[in-house]
Write a structure and sequence with these properties.
The protein is of the alpha+beta class. It contains two helices and eight strands; from the N terminus they run αβββββββαβ. It has helices spanning 26-41, 124-137; strands at residues 47-49, 59-62, 70-81, 84-89, 96-102, 105-111, 117-123, 153-154. The strands form two sheets. Strands 1-2-3-6-7 form a five-stranded antiparallel β-sheet. The chain has a three-stranded antiparallel β-sheet with strand order 4-5-8. Strand 6 (105-111) and strand 7 (117-123) form a beta hairpin. The longest helix has 16 residues, at 26-41.
Length: 162
């Protein structure tokens, strides 16, 4: 496994629409393993999409601190319910966050790394992360949901703890 470099704006790889994965093979499994290792190496991470590491494929991984990480290939949001406004940041636009509107609840379908069809019903943070990572697959970043870049706020470094 390897830690891959995270692409940041204005890298054009972040603006391309990712391609569907047609089947699982060794290269896809290596990509998934590398994405998980990369995600775990980043502070403040919640998930990672393949375009963020320069691979234009529809693959996302999501950190689950108390459970096994989620892997979804060819994810698609099939249902959204409600909306809420919340703070969001991104590994591909580090040092800033902004207030975006996301669904309260979503349902996502796709395939796991064994090519088994999966359906995930999510709310709270998981729903937010799923929407955020699927946006990456479509060439969209959270800053695209802002009215203007003036709405971004800089993340202030934390004060050292005594």
């Amino acid at each position: 496994m390897a830690i891959l470099p995270i692409r940041t704006l204005p890298d054009p790889a972040l603006r391309q629409k990712a391609k569907r994965v047609r089947n699982i093979d060794g290269s896809i499994n290596r990509l998934i393993d590398d994405m998980i290792e990369t995600m775990h190496a980043e502070p403040g991470r919640a998930g990672l999409a393949a375009p963020q590491v320069g691979v234009p494929l529809r693959v996302i991984v999501i950190d689950q601190p108390e459970a096994e990480d989620i892997v979804i290939i060819n994810p698609k949001i099939v249902r959204r319910k409600g909306e809420r406004i919340l703070d969001e940041g991104c590994l591909s636009f580090p040092g800033y966050f902004g207030r975006v509107t996301r669904a309260e609840k979503i349902t996502v379908k796709g395939r796991d790394r064994t090519w088994k069809e999966v359906r995930i019903r999510a709310d709270g943070l998981l729903a937010q992360v799923l929407e955020h990572e699927i946006d990456h697959l479509n060439g969209t970043l959270y800053v695209d949901h802002l009215g203007s870049m003036d709405e971004l706020r800089k993340i202030e470094p934390e004060e050292p703890q005594d």
